[in-house]
Amino acid sequence: MKRKFQNLKLTSPTLNGWMRILLIGLIFSICTTVLLQFAMYFQTWGRFDQTTDIGQAFQAACRFMERPQAFFSVLVSLILFIFIIVLTNHLFVGIATYWVLVIVAFVAEYMKMKARNEPILFSDLSEVTAVGGLTQMVDKTLLFGAMVVILVLVILVVVLETCILKKRTSRFAESVHGMMFQKMGERLLTLCMSIVLLGTPFLVSVDSNRALLEHFGYEWQSFNTGDDTMINGPVMTFVSNIATVIMREPSGYSAKSMAKIDQKYEKYAAVLNKTRTNDLSGQTVITLLSESLTNPDKVENLKYTGGADVYKNIKQLKKNAVMSGTMLSSGYGGGTANIEYMTLAGFPLSMYAPEMVVPYGQLVPFANKVPTLPGLFDKREVIHPYVGTFYNRRDAYKKMSIQKFYTTDGQKYKYPSSDAGTLGKSVYTADKNAYRYLLKKIAKSSNKDSQFLQLMTMQNHMPYEPGEYGNSKYKVTSPTLSDTARKQIETYITGVHYSDVATKKLVAKLDKMQRPVTMIFYGDHWPGVFTFVDPNKQKERSHETDYFIYQNKAARQQSKQTFNQHERAYASPSDFPALALQATNSKVSPLFALQTKIVNELPAFANYQRGRFVDNNGNQLSTKDLTKKQKALLHDLKLVQYDLSSGEHYLKNSFTK
Predict the structure, then answer these.
(1) What is the DSSP letter of 471?
(2) What are 359-407's pLDDT values in tens digits?
């Protein structure tokens, strides 16, 4: 028996050994596909077969196996399994490693679907460096359960590998060794083949990648990655978003056409600047992103009691603002950085290619230029009372002219713990404390320097734990919900109340300042807590948040302008740079002259759906509804956006200065 075992070491896996590996891998791959699809279906969103009934969700996941797309998921999982087995060359170590990855993928997919009805995308992998912050947002019970399963796997591996090591001549040990490679050359060849197969989507173009997937029945859902994963599965959706393109070349793009654009908007900027008297010196402009803030009274069928209107102060501030209205968000339950990018750069997300889903990770590092509103100021700082590793912000900000980025995990620029206090059992900095630090920054500003500040709050970020703020006086009476879902909404409403009160006090303090201050305040998107709302059936309402542009007395005196408060009743986040420069009566470059013309002459971009707009009366429009003049203006924007992001950069440097 010993000689037989020794001879076995000199050979590659036997045919029976290979068949066993493939059979084990096939079973595991099928289980993986069903498990990941279960994470898609065991949800409250109500899309396709989504349900909170475990049995029905499991049946739906099993039915998915009848679709041709399931074969692709099984194949990818099988190749990954073989790669891990050959890499480790230890059967049980490889199996455990594979299942640890599957468990991590399941938890990540389930939690992201729960929060946003969106699967894990390739761009999300940049968030692995933010694991400390991510775990605070994960369901603690699910996380604990996953850790227990992983621990059990590790113990089993140690026991089995020890058993094989001690009883090398047993039939079981010989059978296991018969499935492993003993010749390095053949092992390396198998590794290389699996790497090539797994790595192909990372190397080919977007169109080639899409063509490959279509051989397996891929049905691309360009507007909704949640729907995409329901139809195609999370593995196929993930692969479809690996290869990306920033923006496809618009018709008529050439050096000659861009020279005409240069001249056209240089003249238009000169016209605007004849009546604009300011250059931002000695002024502060703030963009205040209030995380997940929306008016609960605008949520259809939601009724609650508890006394005072939770949103009364912000509604009054909107009435007193120089401009206010409804912002059209591209996100629902998430996507903060995408909305933030639009407010800084002034480019609508819907004009980029559908595959470009996270500008900070997919666009900013590779763009020719990233001209932004902050780039116009002497001092440029961003404040975020949380970890700063999400969305590649640190690297992106450097290219977007941000000088300092204050976060709780910052080393050089650390958000101070003295202003990081929370409310109740919340783990997030309270808005009132974040506002206090913002005021300190303004107070320290130089009288002559222009100052740009961006504050991104965290108080109303998910998850909304029941009882987070103690005994909330706000009680949901409609619709009928589970006890947990009801309490989560009550937590959110209570948080909105605290934000409402804090924002009123912030404005009151800004009013007393001698320095001119202009503040753009907006909620970035709806929270994902209203699980009874289908954001696809209520697409317009569920992507509407509030915004207002506030100026203190000093700023109004300096700008010397009168405003039509409802001039932009519906606004895209990409309108904010032009609106800020208009509010401060500041001179503009040709780029911001173009963006000003967009605001003045085009309806607002509905970034949640490509080719859609909303006019000042709330009417939904498509591109075909635009006038000939408006279509020409839209094409100008497309040419400029392409040239600066991924084109040949034909525009002169003076266009953005």
Answers:
(1) S
(2) 988 899 888 788 999 999 999 999 999 988 777 888 899 999 999 999 9
Q: CA nearest 310: which of 551, 549, 519, 476?
A: 476
What tokens were used for 249?
């070349």
Residue 1 scores a pLDDT above 50: no
Kindly state the DSSP code that residue 535 receives in the 8-state scheme: T
Closest by Cα among 35, 54, 34 to 43: 54
Question: Hey, what are 213's tokens?
Answer: 């997937």
Contact between 28 and 98 under an 8 Å Cβ cutoff? The reply is yes
- Which runs of consecutive H residues, i.e. helices, occur in 89-224? 91-116, 131-135, 140-166, 171-177, 184-203, 206-214
- Is the CB of residue 323 less than 8 Å from the CB of residue 557? no
Please count the CA atoms within 13 angstroms of the CA of 266 that sit on its side-chain side.
12
| The two three-digit tokens of residue 362, written as one number | 């997919």
| Torsion angles phi and psi, residue 328, rounded to 5 | -100, 105
Q: In the structure, how many helices (H) and strands (E) does the chain have?
A: 23, 13
Tokens of 406: 């204050």
Neighbours of 115 (CB within 10 A): 17
CA 645, CA 579: separation in Å to the nearest integer?
A: 22
> pLDDT for 293-339, tens place per residue?
999 999 999 999 987 789 999 999 999 999 999 999 998 888 899 99
C-alpha to C-alpha distance for 474 and 218, rounded to whole angstroms: 46
Q: What is the pTM of this model?
A: 0.81
DSSP state for residue 586 in the 8-state scheme: B
Helix (H/G/I), strand (E/B), else coil: 50: coil
How is residue 174 written in tokens? 């010989």
Q: What is the DSSP string of 329-386?
A: -S-SS--HHHHHHHHHH---GGGS-TT---HHHHTTTT-S----SGGGSSEEEEEESS
DSSP code, position 47: S
